[in-house]
Amino acid sequence: MAEVWSNDQPIYRQLRDKVAANILRGGMQEGEFLPSVRQVSAEQQINHLTVAKAYQELVDEGILEMKRGRGMMVLQGARAKLLNAERKKFEQSELPALYERLKQLDMSISDLISTLNTLQQNEKGDL
Questions:
Q1: pLDDT in tens, 11-20
Q2: Which of 43, 57, 78, 121 has its CA 20 to 30 A from that of 63?
Q3: What is the C-alpha to C-alpha distance for residues 26 and 81, in angstroms, rounded to an integer?
């Protein structure tokens, strides 16, 4: 079944982010091979060049490596590299936006922490 793609960013970028998220959550392990460009293209009903561009971005970032005759492989250390990049992005763009939103709502950081602790406790209860 083909993915539903958003119009807010290019499909290759969405596919790149989907592969990266899969690596981050452990759905794809270091040393594991990705489905071929042709296979993803057929399954997702998107152009093969779009898939190749998404994979190439991850190669350029040092997350994937092309193994001649075998396909794209997740490199050792890829998950740590992705975690580091995502944390940096969170600290540089999402946290400042969150801080501004807290100020708008006249909500203290301790209120936020309390709410987060409650959410965490509820999550632990669901396990």
A1: 999 999 999 9
A2: 43
A3: 14
